[in-house]
Amino acid sequence: MLQSAALVPGAAGFIGSWVVRSLCAAGFVDVRAGVMSTARFMRLDGFPVRLVHCYILDGESLAAAMQGVEIIINCARGHPGSDVILGGTRTLLTSAVEAGVRRMIQMSSIAVYGQATGTVTEDTAPVPPLNKYANDKRAAEVLCQTAAGEHLTIAVLRPSLVYGPFGEEWTARFIKALVAGQLGQLGSAGEGEANLMYAGDLGKFAAFLAAADLPYYSVYNANGSETPNFNEYFDRLNDALGLGTRPPLKGRPFGSGLRRQTRRLGRLVLREQGTRLRKFAAASRSFASLLDWAEDALRPGIHDGALDQYAGHVIYSIERARLIGFVPQTPLQEGIDASALWARSQGIIL
Q1: 39-45 contact pairs (CB < 8 A, 24+)
Q2: What integer pLDDT is reported at residue 78 of this predicted model?
Q3: Which of 65, 169, 322, 346 is deepest in the core (most CB within 10 A)?
Q4: Residue 290, Cβ neighbours under 10 Å: how many?
């Protein structure tokens, strides 16, 4: 399989770039980074990859990118309001079958389990409510299961909370909050399990599945080998940044105030009107910049959820991954130190 050409749609993203790196490190000789623009992509500087134009909702670009490809690792995520998850997966599967692709790794999410608690395996039924993202991910998995067979092997990865250099949701936003003194001690509200998966290990898992002996269809949780609680994660990240003692939590910033509700409304507008707004953005560079700023500014923040968002008790089992021979290797402290080093290199902390 290492001689096979591998295409990674969404290679410009956080997870996609780590997958591309891991394929190169594993010895794959023809790695194609599927990106919207083939301009220089600094995250992959120094890696022997070929940048190819690839938009997951455009069958024509997919057909061109897939010429000679035997393996696809789908890391495309898309912007709010897009149809990248469901419609993109459908288009990708159709193009893959037509191109004679032999194997596909689909990035899904633990979001498909909804509000499940306790020890969650790949067979755990979802517990409502599920948001649109989770429902789309589940529906995309069904498409994959239907398409899998003798001519196309498909493995679905369900990553937990992916952190590490270049990561925003579970890395940079916490670092920024710690630097600003906004992430104080949570006490009992931070005693829930932080199911953290280092991005480098997730990339290695994807590369492992690209070459492993697998059934026609399979599903795997992707989680780290250490599961701290959120208090421990925040404390260790804070120490790695050299910020001193975290202050006590003041007031109740997680409440349902006007700011939180306004931000939620903004995200709803982007989700419902995202496709239309992107069409306007395509014709106006200034509007495109404004839309990018709005999406970044409205990204879920530290205080946008309920205070108990870090108190829930759930562990996503990786026993199935262990049974096929994959175990994440990056110790939690090593991943945290790498994240802190990256933050300094980006000027997030001096």
Answers
A1: 41/11, 41/12, 41/17, 43/12, 43/17, 43/166, 44/11, 44/17, 44/20
A2: 78
A3: 65
A4: 13
Task: Give dist(CA 56, CA 9) in Å, integer.
Answer: 7
pTM as predicted = 0.86
The bridge status of strand 30-35 relative to strand 217-222 is unpaired
Amino acid identity of residue 191, one-letter, is E
Q: What is the DSSP string of 293-315?
A: HHHHHTS--TTSS-GGGGT--EE
| ∠ Cα 303 307 313 (to 5°) | 125
Burial label for 123, CB within 10 Å (0-12, 13-18, 19+), is: exposed
Domain ranges of the chain: 5-176+195-227+313-331, 258-297
pLDDT (mean) for 50-77? 95
Which three-class secondary structure state does DSSP give residue 112? helix
Confirm or reject CATH 3.40.50.720 for domain 5-176+195-227+313-331, answering yes or no.
yes
* Beta pairing class for 30-35 and 161-163: unpaired
Beta bridge partners of 163: 198
**pLDDT tens-digit series, residues 207-223:** 999 999 999 999 999 99
Contact 40, 225 (CB under 8 A): no
Q: Residue length, the chain? A: 350
